[in-house]
Records
---
Amino acid sequence: MVATLEQRDFPVDQLKLLASTRGAGTKIEFKGKEYTVEVMTENSFAGMDIGLFSPGGSVSEKFAPIAGKAGCVVIDNTSAFRMDPQVPLVVPEVNAHAIARYGTKNIIANPNCSTIQMVVALKPIHDVARIKRVVVSTYQAVSGTGKRAVKELEDQVLAIYGNKEVTKTGLPPPDRLQLSSSH
Ligand SMILES: NC(=O)c1ccc[n+]([C@@H]2O[C@H](COP(=O)([O-])OP(=O)(O)OC[C@H]3O[C@@H](n4cnc5c(N)ncnc54)[C@H](OP(=O)(O)O)[C@@H]3O)[C@@H](O)[C@H]2O)c1
């Protein structure tokens, strides 16, 4: 996200980088200046205009409304608000007009990553030929579960090739992560 803001030369006066206690203290560079990641608290959002959220569903569920109430418009990557009728579910290339409804909770949700890219391709077809039904199987990437899952997969692959014991945490097992299918 930070790299994309820089790449697009997005107008940023003040940048605040938030994480849990795990990531706090990490240094990240933005436009030649170094920023230190801070712990996200209920007081993190005063004076902030936009909050780009991707901390996982349960964390967004708690903190996005707090940010919204503080006047910080949240764009949330997680599943927490996708089915909330008071929160617009937006893919800008497809239904940017829906953003107008953001003000009820000051939260804008985006769909699952496999849906986003698909509807961008389907929208122009739908506009000229009304699509009635789409049947899709997705094979979700490990990365969709976040960086801990990516690290766990890396460790497991190295363990298998090194003939060592494969350790598992509470994350979904590799077979489910890579082969789960949804319609
Ligand atoms: N809509 C989409 O296209 C899309 C795509 C990918 C992922 N997602 C969703 O986004 C979420 C996260 O995925 P990701 O790939 O971005 O995960 P990630 O790489 O693990 O990043 C999660 C970030 O949230 C922070 N975080 C975790 N718990 C926190 C807490 N209690 N307070 C503050 N910050 C916290 C982490 O900081 P620490 O370093 O402190 O842990 C980390 O910076 C998931 O819900 C996933 O399903 C959506």
Note: The first helix runs from residue 2 to 7.
---
Amino acid sequence: MAHPTGYTRAQIALHWITLVLVALQYILHDAMSEAWEALVAGGEVVFDPLIAQHVATGALVAVLTFVRLGLRISHGAPPPPASEHAALKVVAQATHWAFYALLILMPVSGAVAWFNGVEGAAVAHNVLKLALLALIALHVVAALVHQFVFRTNLIARMKTPVA
Ligand code: HEM
Ligand code: HEM
């Protein structure tokens, strides 16, 4: 895998677009959750544009994550700051790959629940939702600790592209 000095414009754009899309999924999920409850109870699902939004935004996250994975493999990612402790390098790597996995597993589990009526997939969707939130919390704390405690200016890497 390549070792560039920074992320490309496309990688940075995809990082922040994904953040907005994922935030929308957490903020606007009520209509989808209610529709699912109605479906499980054998009732009728009344169309709500926010149901279509949840499906479409989730599908877009999956597509963009595959594009991102392609760029991650073809372009690579900058190495961690030289001063970084070996254990933290491993945690950072694991966190980043876990993000890619969750950003694909969330839409897949949601789609299997919604389109095939598989209740186990909805349970998985709910567990993964918590795992993704925990990962985001860890990731944001790590970014802030890097910025303000280690002073590695890490956030600049997700703002300033290399060619
Ligand atoms: C990155 C993508 C996605 C994220 C972050 C996400 C997030 C969420 C969240 C936070 C909930 C609320 C769970 C609760 O009631 O507390 C939810 C529910 C649900 N989502 Fe998604 N979702 C994504 C993609 C999808 C997709 C693509 C589909 C369907 C095609 C889908 C179908 C569902 C269903 C059926 C529920 C109701 C499940 C239940 O309440 O047990 N999701 N989703
Ligand atoms: C939904 C929320 C987020 C997701 C899914 C996410 C995902 C990711 C992933 C997968 C990477 C690794 C890219 C790679 O090298 O393969 C990454 C890197 C990064 N993220 Fe996030 N991120 C999120 C939110 C944030 C937020 C809120 C911040 C800032 C406070 C942030 C700051 C960074 C920085 C600085 C890097 C670069 C780390 C480095 O160069 O080693 N991220 N993010």
Note: The longest helix spans residues 119-150.
